[in-house]
Amino acid sequence: MHADTENRSGSDDGDVKVNGDPDAIHNGNFNANPNAKNNGDDHGHASTSANAGSTGNATGNAMGNDTSNAGGNDNSNAADYVIDVSGLTKSFDGKVVVNALSMRVKRGEIYGFLGPNGSGKTTFIRMLCGLLKPDSGSGACLGYDVLTQADLIKPHVGYMAQRFSLYEDLTVRENLDFMARMYGLADRVRVVDECLTRMGMTRFENQLAGSLSGGWKQRLALSACTLHGPKLLLLDEPTAGVDPGARRDFWDEVHKLASQGVTALISTHYMDEAERCHRLAYIAYGDLLAQDTLEGIVDNAGLSTWSVTGPGLPELAERLRPLPGVEQVVAFGNSLHVSGQDAAALAASLGPYQAENGQAQAGREWKPIRTSLEEVFIHLMRGHQARQNGQTQKIQTGQKSQADQKNQADQNQTAQINQAGEKP
Predict the structure, then answer these.
(1) How do residues 65-104 score in pLDDT, each as one tens digit?
(2) Cα distance from N-terminal residue to C-terminal residue, the chain
(3) 3-class DSSP state for residue 292?
(4) pTM of the entire predicted model
(5) Helix pair 172-183, 214-225: axis angle to 10 deg
(6) CA neighbours within 13 Å on the CB side: how many for 12?
(7) Cα separation of 424 and 415, whole Å?
(8) Per-residue pLDDT tens over the stretch 290-335
(9) Taking the CA atoms of the chain, what radius of gyration do you get in angstroms?
(10) What are the respective helix, strand and coil percentages of the chain, to the nearest 5?
(11) What distance in Å separates the CA atoms of residue 285 and residue 9, rounded to the nearest whole number?
């Protein structure tokens, strides 16, 4: 048995289990129903019984038609935005993990959340679904206040953790039946049967979850977190380590859910997945650097990019990298992509190599291309790191200046004392 804990960087570290017993009382911390038998579940999913003392009113059809009544008033349709938060901040031991992050996500939107490891993506997701309380900021998720109404948010959220967190020693059907109990769903057999059919998992229903391939494990996890018909999916790097075919199938399911009105906030490292989102946000070490549509983020970056093919590309790359205006030189198959924000400086630096006056340039072909999302995000990350390093250097310079001033003052005081002691 191992507990799901939030580590200092806000990453997902595990899950709460009940010794593989579907009938066991679950005493986790993720349930809005204080009277339910299964009193909570941070089992990698928003496993909640929405109506206190109820046997379950959720339809479990993963269509966003959750009929459960958490606290009596479901006002999630009162606003145009399913997520509308401003200035959310979270720190651990004095280290800011999420820094004044603001975001608005519409109903039925697939919102991609990108950034390097340790950037605060998981921490932000956990604040949205009520697993963590923000230190400051304000806003609403599904119409409920993220600071004061976290228990009312949880029943309407499907949360999928970074790693597979269902019971590997239970079969596929047993896992789904257990989750249906956790959600307090009525007519569990029908709900599970429909879910197995909808997700194409009927042939695996009696197979142990631990024996599934990575792609099918993720499909099972998605099935479990949509079993109760949530209005919002929070998927934390759901396809990490999954092969491209399984990732495509997974995203097809997410798009089907979005077409039925389910909103999805998905963190990912894969650029091809990011391109399948309706809108994107990029976070680097707690700071939100950009958010827009794919086209908007690429255009706003202002990068100019050239592609070059031909012989001697590794040597050419080394010669181009130190030139003025050249920010990135990256190999893409049999070509190089050369990018920079200063189009004029970039063109001036590349001009001699594009003229093909010498033998070394013979056979090379240059052409301007559209900047890729990956190049934009590398540009944003490097720019953020440069700004952070500049601020650190200023602080260190200021501290050194203060120390020098103090040392000089101490020396002056010592000299004055010595002089006073020498007087008759």
Answers:
(1) 443 333 334 444 445 899 999 999 999 999 999 999 999 9
(2) 81
(3) strand
(4) 0.71
(5) 20
(6) 27
(7) 17
(8) 999 999 999 999 999 999 999 999 999 999 999 999 999 999 999 9
(9) 27
(10) 35, 20, 40
(11) 10
